[in-house]
């Protein structure tokens, strides 16, 4: 395959064309063809892909050499003009096609070779330069995208660090400085207007803008900036701050002077949309660094705004949840306290009635009164547990920590359940060490173990319940394992919430759902419920770990 430079000759005088073919061949070039019209030249360029075209300016036909050269230029093939003489207007047209050289007729062999070599070399150098620029632009685009991905990852991490509303709002504005903006401001809806929730400047000049916005708040009907964005829900890009834009924002001459002092160059404003409503607007502006925003920056800002809106909604929802929990705990505390007094009165009256019935030997009334007394006792126990839940939630539960041997304490609790466990067909099997000394609240330990054993017997399905004690280092682990209906994985988190119960196979099983919540919220106590499945039936395991033990 030939490696000689390929030349296409476009000349409508046959003698000149043949002379050029001979000369070029002698000089070491491959002449792919000689044609005499513009359309023929374009056709041969597309077919032959020459390295260079020698084009006569004056060609016969409707298309002259200049028009043909302009078409060939877009095929990325260099053109050198052949000319004897042309007027100024023709030469101006020729220069607009950006030729790679001129050869005057009659031509000199040496001059012709120099022009051709320079044209081919210049075209190749230009192609290599263009390719280098494309590669550099591609690398820069990839690096920019990588930087943006890292920025979004860091931004998401920062936004997830707090569920405090104001901290989240400050984080949203602070994230953009200095990579995305010189100025960053976040405005939120407040009553019937807008409130500046957060403001940051790369050089710490926030106070000047705060004062200006206080003196000259933007009109809600302004066709620019955050009032427009929050009103319409449409993002805004101002590539260049012109005097006209500044004048449309300013309310008077002094306001315009203060705006000019900020040296604003370009601005982006994007809405923070939550559930279809524009709740806030993030404004980013370039000033001192003399940078400008473009459409790609607007796309990035909208992506950031989407994540910020999610963080903002999470913070608001968490705040609302905290308020709801506070109201619930307050209600439970008041209700529990209010219930204790009438329950005590009812209990005293029933005990008096029981004594009277015994004196009268009323065998019919005594069992009924005792049943009512047991119901009142259960209700009083539930009220006490509700009080515990509210105290734990408010951080007011007092623990009386003392040093004790856990083994006899827990063994005594287990023995209390021995008879009911046998009656339920779930005998208790224990595995305790001889001695296990630590520090704990005796009454709370009794409460927790009682609740665990009660649940295990209730849902044990008539199979043995295993109680084991282990200790080591600074922890003691009590495991209560039954072989009953079990707990499905999706219900594990629910059972540790107040009033939470797993969906049961036997829906008739009673219970308020308070016990495990109390156990899991006692200070320093971790309760985990694990569900697994054996070859026959599922089983549930409840483990109590208490780090206060020595």
Description:
By secondary structure, this protein is α/β, with parallel strands linked by helices. It has 16 helices and 17 strands. The chain is elongated. The model is unreliable at 501-550 (pLDDT under 50).
Architecture blueprint of SSEs:
Elements: E1 6-10, H1 14-26, E2 30-35, H2 38-48, E3 52-56, H3 65-73, E4 79-83, H4 88-96, E5 102-104, H5 109-159, H6 165-175, E6 183-190, E7 193-201, H7 206-215, H8 225-232, E8 236-238, H9 243-249, H10 253-261, E9 266-274, E10 277-286, H11 295-359, H12 365-393, E11 401-405, H13 406-416, H14 418-423, E12 428-431, E13 437-441, H15 442-458, E14 465-472, E15 475-482, H16 515-521, E16 526-533, E17 538-546
Parallel strand pairs: 1-2, 1-3, 3-4, 4-5, 12-14
Antiparallel strand pairs: 6-7, 6-10, 8-9, 9-10, 11-13, 14-15, 15-17, 16-17
Give a brief rundown of this model.
The chain is of the alpha/beta class. Helix content is 50%, strand content 20%.
Strand order of the largest sheet: 2-1-3-4-5
Proportion of residues in extended strands: 15-25%
Helix content: 40-55%
**Gyration radius, rounded:** 44 Å
> Which spans have pLDDT < 50 for at least 5 consecutive residues?
501-550
Q: So what's the overall shape? A: elongated
N- to C-terminal distance: 89 Å
Based on the model shown, name its key terms.
about 550 residues, alpha/beta, five-stranded parallel β-sheet, five-stranded antiparallel β-sheet, elongated, disordered C terminus
């Amino acid at each position: 395959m030939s490696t000689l430079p390929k030349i296409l000759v476009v000349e409508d005088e046959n003698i000149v064309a043949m002379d050029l073919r001979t000369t070029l061949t002698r000089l070491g070039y491959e002449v792919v063809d000689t044609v005499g019209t513009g359309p023929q030249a374009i056709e041969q360029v597309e077919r032959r892909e020459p390295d260079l075209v020698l084009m006569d300016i004056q060609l016969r036909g409707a298309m002259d050499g200049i028009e043909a050269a302009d078409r060939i230029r877009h095929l990325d093939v260099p053109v050198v003009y052949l000319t004897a003489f042309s007027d100024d207007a023709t030469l101006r047209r020729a220069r607009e096609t950006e030729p790679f050289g001129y050869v005057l007729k009659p031509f000199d062999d040496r001059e012709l070779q120099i022009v051709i070599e320079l044209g081919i070399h210049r075209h190749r150098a230009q192609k290599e330069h263009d390719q280098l620029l494309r590669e550099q632009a591609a690398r820069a685009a990839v690096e920019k995208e990588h930087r943006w991905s890292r920025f979004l990852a860091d931004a998401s991490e920062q936004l997830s660090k707090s569920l405090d509303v104001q901290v989240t709002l400050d984080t949203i504005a602070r994230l953009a400085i200095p990579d995305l903006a010189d100025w960053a401001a976040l405005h939120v809806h407040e009553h019937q207007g807008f409130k500046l929730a957060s403001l940051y400047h790369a050089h710490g000049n926030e106070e000047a803008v705060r004062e200006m916005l206080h003196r000259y708040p933007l009109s809600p009907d302004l066709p620019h900036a955050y009032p427009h964005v929050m009103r319409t829900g449409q993002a805004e890009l101002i590539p260049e701050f012109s005097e006209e834009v500044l004048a449309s924002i300013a309310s008077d001459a002094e306001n315009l002077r203060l705006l000019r002092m900020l040296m604003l160059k370009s601005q982006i404003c994007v809405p923070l949309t939550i559930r279809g409503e524009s709740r806030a607007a993030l404004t980013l502006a370039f000033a001192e660094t003399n940078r400008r925003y473009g459409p790609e920056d607007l796309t990035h800002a909208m992506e950031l705004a989407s994540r910020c809106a999610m963080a903002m909604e999470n913070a608001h929802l968490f705040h609302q949840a905290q308020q709801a929990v506070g109201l619930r705990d307050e209600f439970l505390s008041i209700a529990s306290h209010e219930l204790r007094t009438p329950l005590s009165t009812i209990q005293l009256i029933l005990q008096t009635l029981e004594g009277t019935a015994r004196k009268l030997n009323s065998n019919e009334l005594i069992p009924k009164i005792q049943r009512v007394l047991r119901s009142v006792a259960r209700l009083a126990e539930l009220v006490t547990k509700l009080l515990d839940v509210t105290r734990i939630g408010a951080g007011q539960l007092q623990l009386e920590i003392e040093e004790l041997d856990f083994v006899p304490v827990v063994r005594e609790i287990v023995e209390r359940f021995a008879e009911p466990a046998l009656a339920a067909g779930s005998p208790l099997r224990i595995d305790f060490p001889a001695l296990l000394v630590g520090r704990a609240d005796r009454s709370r330990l009794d409460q927790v173990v009682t609740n665990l054993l009660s649940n295990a017997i209730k849902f044990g399905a008539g199979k043995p319940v295993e109680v084991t004690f282990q200790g080591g280092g600074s922890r003691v682990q009590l495991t209560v394992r039954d072989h009953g209906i079990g707990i499905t994985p999706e219900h594990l988190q629910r059972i540790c919430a107040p009033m939470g119960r797993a969906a049961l196979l036997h829906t008739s099983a009673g219970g308020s759902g308070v016990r495990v919540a109390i156990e899991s919220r006692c200070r320093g106590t971790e309760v985990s419920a694990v569900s697994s499945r054996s070859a026959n039936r599922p089983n549930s395991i409840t483990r109590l770990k208490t780090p206060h033990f020595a």
